[in-house]
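Run: sequence + arginine -> complex structure.
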Amino acid sequence: MEYKKVVAERIKKCVDLDLETIERLIEIPPRAEMGDFAFPCFQLSKTMRKAPQMIAEQIKNEIDREGFEKVENAGPYLNFFLDKGVFVKSVLEKVLAEKDSYGSSNVGVGKNVVVEYSSPNIAKPFHVGHLFTTVIGNALYKIMKFEGYNCIGINHLGDWGTQFGKLIYAYKQGWADEEKLAKDPINELLRIYVKFHEEAEKNPALDDEARHHFKNLEEGKEEETALWNKFKDMSLKEFNKVYEMLGVKFDSYAGESFYSDKMESVIEEIDEKGLLVESQGAKVVMLDEYNMPPTIIKKADGASIYATRDLAAAFYRKKTYDFYKNIYVVGIDQSLHFKQVFTTIGLMGHEWSKDCVHVPFGLVRFADKKLSTRKGDVIFLEDLLKEAISKTLEIINEKNPSLENKEETAKKIGIGAVVFTYLKNTRERDIVFDWKEMLSFDGETGPYVQYTYARGKSILRKAGELNGEVNYSKLTTAEEFELAKLLDSFQSSILLAIDKYEPSVVTRHIIEIAKAFNKFYNSHNILNVEDEEVKLGRLKLVEATCQVISNGLNILGIETVEKM
Ligand code: ARG
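>> structure
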């Protein structure tokens, strides 16, 4: 059990407050002389009708101190000082017994969670912006699964909409070069798409042509459908290369087109509930009351749009997965769209609209290039990941030329470095891509954490088999204790990450563990210690640290390497 929980349970025995509240109130004091955990008694003062100071005094006198060096009261606070040896023993034994499952739980058992992520657009580049959703979504999926939730990962492909009318028109004009299309489909499709926009600027009638072709596609006409399928197959082949490199999987690829025949019933329901209003020929749901522009349900020409498909998707997911949460990992620029969709569902009288969650993230900038698909000036993900690998290989060739499996290692470290960059900061913060910083072995980077892991593994290889009775009471230095505390609170950070839909909480925790490990490593001998008990204890601490780093990186979607 995490020590915070132990503290909470002890307190619970003395007061009339539920465990969850107690746990929430427990603080980690800013300074070591204030103990390892602190409990403020203000909240109890109302129900107990007593001054918080007196309550602290009372709990101090009653509480069971087993496993604690001391429990003190300081004004309205209770300060808990752990018995270091007992604590380190309990943490390390737990990590080493639970191994790969350390940090997991079954808090999510029986709850279905839909996680929608990645969702690139067919025939358009899979670019660095999509990496954000792919990486965050994949991490949330894994993190929640680790805590017992039944996750359903959905790739809501952008495979429907008027842009396909444009593409079909452009293709039918014979603008595409078949050879190029076979070799480099996305770029060629992008080129004719860009050409369409250029031509349409000169001749607006082309937009009507495009709409017409999309209408045919919606009606299932043969020619349009065949072309659409062709574009989709080509694109997915390209996207899958990236998913393979990243090790990202989905349970469903039901994209926008999947809902083309599922919208009518939703529109009917909106109408039945008296929410469907005419506005300039279009059908909309008014959201004035909520200070939002209307949700457009049907365009003037009768064609459905993005929001309608999202409404249909939400209803389908509710019916199919009976979700506990329906999570959308989509850029912050679509916040209004999701608010409109969720509000519309709420207006229709469905309580589960509150279980739909938009998890937004910021922008990615690379040098000073702006990312856009119209101008054809974008950075493809595949190229970016390949560059990360080759740059990492260069670094390895410089630092450790005799390393075996260099390519494989460069792949894990290079891709891991990119993924780590996306998961390191709170997700709404913009990212500026900086190769040098990202691939550095120092600082808060993927390679730094992976290097820490590999360093630990190398120590363990040198030590050989760890035999003998472990006397954990000998691990009482500040560095050992701090490291053990971070291993202990690993699960809290995972649960907090779930609460906030914020994988960076886990990333930061792993960074802290890596830092604490290096501090420990730099302050103490591990292999060259005379006292065999101390040596064995320290090696166990190394082993446990590696285990937790690996579990943490694993749920973030990053692989570890044994040597680097
Ligand atoms: N395909 C869209 C894009 O690339 C993102 C889709 C977001 N998901 C949704 N359910 N609307 O911008």
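>> summary
The pocket of arginine is lined by residues 116, 119-121, 156, 158, 310, 328, 330 (CB under 6 Å). The first helix runs from residue 3 to 12.
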